[in-house]
Task: structure prediction
Amino acid sequence: MYKAIIGEKDYSVAHKDDQILLNDELFSWDFTKISDHAYHIIKDDVSYRLEVVKVDYSTKTVALKINGDKYEIAVKDKLDLLLEKLGMDMSTANLMNDIKAPMPGLILQVNVSEGDEVKEGDALMILEAMKMENVLKAPGDGTVKVVNVAQGDSVEKNQVLIQF
Result:
C-alpha cells in the first residue's frame, strides 16, 4: 500500500493481482510506453500523454507532465506510513526545530550543550528504552538553543529534548 499526495489531496494506492486499486476502487486504464520517459494512457475513453519529468528518490517525489500540465506527487510507502502512524515521521526532520523523544525512556548521556554547533549525523544523546540504547542523532546542521533534559532524566514519548 502506498499513499500519493497531489497538492492537498491524499490517495490510497494498492497493487493486487496485477491490478491497481485507487482509494479501494479498481482503477482501469490502458497504459503504453512510448519512450524512456513518456507514456500514452487511455482512461474512460479519454487519451492522455504522460511524461516523467523528474524522480527524486531522496524526497520520494515525482514531477509529471500530463497533457502539458505539471504535477508534483509525493509518495509514501508502507514504512513511511508506519513511521507516521507511530509518530516517528522523518519527512520534516531536516527542518530541525527540535528533537523529541521517539519513545519513553531514560537519558543515559547528553553530548551537547546550549550554543553548540552540530552537523547532520552528530550523536546528541543516548536514550535507553526497553533495555536498548538508542543514539539520537542530529537530522541536520544547526545550533543548540536549549537542552531540556539531563543525564538520568526519565522522558515521555514526544517530549522535547533539544531545541534549535
